[in-house]
Amino acid sequence: xxxxxxxxxxxxxxxxxxxxxxxxxxxxxxxxxxxxxxxxxxxxxxxxxxxxxxxxxxxxxxxxxxxxxxxxxxxxxxxxxxxxxxxxxxxxxxxxxxxxxxxxxxxxxxxxxxxxxxxxxxxxxxxxxxxxxxxxxxxxxxxxxxxxxxxxxxxxxxxxxxxxxxxxxxxxxxxxxxxxxxxxxxxxxxxxxxxxxxxxxxxxxxxxxxxxxxxxxxxxxxxxxxxxxxxxxxxxxxxxxxxxxxxxxxxxxxxxxxxxxxxxxxxxxxxxxxxxxxxxxxxxxxxxxxxxxxxxxxxxxxxxxxxxxxxxxxxxxxxxxxxxxxxxxxxxxxxxxxxxxxxxxxxxxxxxxxxxxxxxxxxxxxxxxxxxxxxxxxxxxxxxxxxxxxxxxxxxxxxxxxxxxxxxxxxxxxxxxxxxxxxxxxxxxxxxxxxxxxxxxxxxxxxxxxxxxxxxxxxxxxxxxxxxxxxxxxxxxxxxxxxxxxxxxxxxxxxxxxxxxxxxxxxxxxxxxxxxxxxxxxxxxxxxxxxxxxxxxxxxxxxxxxxxxxxxxxxxxxxxxxxxxxxxxxxxxxxxxxxxxxxxxxxxxxxxxxxxxxxxxxxxxxxxxxxxxxxxxxxxxxxxxxxxxxxxxxxx
Length: 636
Prior knowledge:
By secondary structure, this protein is mostly helical. It has helices at about 25-35, 45-70, 75-85, 95-120, 135-180, 185-200, 210-230, 230-255, 260-280, 285-330, 340-360, 365-415, 420-435, 445-465, 470-490, 495-515, 520-540, 545-555, 560-595, 605-635. The chain is elongated, with a radius of gyration of 46 Å.
């Protein structure tokens, strides 16, 4: 064809003619293949490039989904899954899988908590039945719907890609025909631009045909340029427009290097690469430098994206190591050293704290996440099974102790009406000593059996005391002495703190040396005494716990003789039970305070109130220990 058609070449208004090169011979194209991380050859459609990147994008979406779904409730998971199923065409499988895993993690934790509560109430593990969860059935239904929709979508995508493949083969045949035609240049050019446009409009094709199609398309496009021998002026215009567009793309990619969202920058880069492929070539002397600039900026973004997911994987590995350490700690317990309720309770606190720590650790690598959780669960189950066995064995021993104490009750009840005061007193004291050698009984029987035993002992000693008539005169003398002592206490007006306190303690010690008063006067004189002591305590600003301790020691002074010892033992047993009750209550508060979050709404006030109760309990428990020590001193 001659150059006579040069004056009839299409202008910019008619559209520009694009020149491309075969991928295997163009430095610009081969470099693009390296930087885009094995994406299809240059010139593929947007959908074809996206299909090549789909595994990378789905993996990234899956990683992001795992991070975000860990904070959702079951209801939020159900709502989010409903939305994803409704837009199944735009949803990746990893997003759905992440929601499914997050739901079953919450479900397993709830079942574990219910099972734990059931066993703590005395239930057997084999009797525990997992309650039905309506949310689970809805989740399964949504997953089934999603699976059907995705299958239909994939089938339709396959049909469309096959049709697109056939259309592109036809376009290549038409392009080939143009290279062999001798028709007018204007018509050939318009036909060529039409083929180019239709080629761009045809989107995704089967992945295995992408390179084959594009290479054929490039070969015949180049041949068309060579055959037509387009004039240099038009080529320069085309090159200039392409240079402007590719320079703008370089600037855009360079700006993406500072994008805070690394994943978003990577996704934007894929679209910019696709735009680069769709733009025609620039002047040969500029191609290598321009492509080098674009490639260098792209490499930085790819490196940031790779480092981002390497950091995620490193964090998952750290999580695996932390979870493995927890498993090893529980598996390494020395059960032979756990010989009392206290030992098991302390070890249970450690297990519960480790369970709480486990919840704060993120996901482990996917291939290890389920295995390490099953190992952790097995270790916890093994511990609580051993604890259950210990409690069953101890319960059997407590039942034996209960029978022994009931036998002592029967003996005491058989002696309570005896008038052989001396011999029976010795027998009653022997029974009380034997009582001390018997171990603990179950909490629900402890108070009842003790009250039964002490009632028989008290009855005998009360009858004995009533029989001693000579005691009445002594009691009147004691009453007069105590009244005089109360007056002395009220009269203390010493200003010096140490001297006043020394005098007060002296009078209180004197009170303890005075014997019993008449029974009907006991409460009255006792009240006067304590009113007088409290008045001095207030004047001297004595600590409340010290007051209680001094008052308690005064009470012990009334418990002398054989009858008094019985009361001392009873008081000591009562204080021991009160101490154990407070100890359990303290443990409950300390466990509960671990679940409170100060940052949550209302959490700060509740946290402080719980701390106040814990401090109060500790003070009361310390006072009880002092009282028990005082009783032991009196018994000795």
